[in-house]
Amino acid sequence: MIQKGVIVILFFVLLGNPTSVMAQTEPEDIAMATDEYQDAFYESLKQKGIENYDKAITSLEKCVKLKPNDAVAYFELGKNYLSLKDYRNAQDSFEKATQLDPKNKWYWLGIYDVSYETKNYPLAIETIQKIIVFDEEYKDDLISLYMITNQFDKALVAINEMNDKFGKSEDRDRYKLQILSQGKYQNAEIGNLIDQIKKNPKEESNYVNLIFLYSKAEETDKALDVMKQLAKEVPNSEWAQVSMFKVYLDANQADKAIKSMNMILSSPKIDSKIKHRTLNEFLLYVNKNPQYAPDLEKAIAYFDNDKDVDVAKEIGKFYHSKGQYENAIRYYEKDLKTNSDTDRETNLLLLEVYTLAKQYEPMTKRAMNMIEVYPSQPQFYYYAGLGNNQLKQFKNAKTVLEMGLDYVVDDKTLEANFNIQLGEAYNGLGDARKKEEYFLKANELLKKKK
Question: Is the pTM value of this prediction over 0.70?
Answer without folding.
Answer: no
